[in-house]
Amino acid sequence: MIRWASGQIHTGRVPLDGWYPYFSLGTSEFHHYQALAAIVTAYLGQLFGGNVQTTYLWLLYLLLAFFPLSVYWGGRLLGWDRWTAACAALVTPLLVSKPGYGIEAGSYTWRGYGLYTQLFGMWLLPLVWGLSWRAVSRGRGYAVAAVALALTIAFHLLTAYEVLLVIAVWGIPAWRYIGRRILRVAVVSRGAVL
């Protein structure tokens, strides 16, 4: 998908839609599937000299290598102390799932199924949880939380479902402020959809 998007960009077209001939008998893959990761990688490949394979490998490496930082920042946004957030970030590379579809390094490298779009969603997941928690619990940073959630939706829809389910639950725990929290959940969620 990245090579196809790069070819579209190289010929002066915007790769948001078009006939993708490499899947089955062909499909409008960029119209029906989360293609933002492929498009971003293709544009970065063009920016750095047109070699999309190298750009893909560097992005894969950087997103995997710096995922613990995303977990740390997300933990700090959730209100965890530095030690707790650092411990969560430290054990993040140890995550493992049997089939290779989970949030683990193997899902994106040699053992997995090439879940490149999920990698972008995975990287945003802790940050979106933290930013959304800050918006729902404290009433600060609605726009940043909504933009981060919108990016998660655009990069990987299933990861965004996880975020939306968690955000919906965050409106409930404080019965005293339940109306205010549900309104904040609605603001973040609707802002992301817009």
Q: How would you describe this protein?
A:
This protein is mostly helical and about 190 residues long. The chain contains ten helices and no strands. The longest helix is centred in the middle third of the chain and has 23 residues, at about 115-140.
Task: Give short descriptive properties of this protein.
single chain; 0% strand; 194 residues; mainly alpha
Q: Report how far the terminal alpha carbons are from each other.
A: 26 Å
Structural class: mainly alpha
Low-confidence segments, given as residue ranges, are: none
Helix content: 55-70%
Work out the strand percent. under 5%
What integer value in Å does the Rg equal?
A: 18 Å
Say how many strands there are: 0
> What's the mean pLDDT score?
85
Give a concise summary:
The protein is an all-alpha fold and 194 residues long.
Task: Give the helices and strands, then pairings.
Layout: H1 2-10, H2 29-32, H3 36-47, H4 52-65, H5 67-77, H6 82-91, H7 116-138, H8 142-155, H9 157-170, H10 178-193
Helix pairs in contact: 1-3, 3-4, 5-6, 5-7, 7-8, 7-9, 7-10, 8-9, 8-10, 9-10
